Amino acid sequence: MPRLLFKWLVMSLAILAIPQLAGGVRVESFGAALAVAAVLGVLNVVLKPILILLTLPLTILSLGLFLLVLNAFMVQLAPLFVAGFHVDSFWSAFVSSLIISLVSWVANVFDESQFRWRISAGREHRRN
Prior knowledge:
Layout: H1 2-21, E1 25-27, H2 30-46, H3 48-54, H4 56-61, H5 66-77, E2 85-87, H6 90-127
Antiparallel strand pairs: 1-2
């Protein structure tokens, strides 16, 4: 559970920083950023696999780059569910999705390295 809360907080902070990094996106409060992070998580779990399956030929032809368009679509859907989040255009959503993906990747790398360290430290402790 702490790993999930860590990732949710990191994503919320990234969403809160997006208006300063990319134009066309407005986040009214930290609460809205928390809600957007939760909504994007739910959309990525529920809707994205269906969309990937439906657009599989296009994704294969573009060598996976069409997944960036799907991510931008998810960011454009989020304002329908969160009142304090606004995205002006597809390109704003596209840049936002790139930022979110990059931060998510960094958070996952950091989390995995911490997790591996804990496992290896536990093994050393058991040997002694």
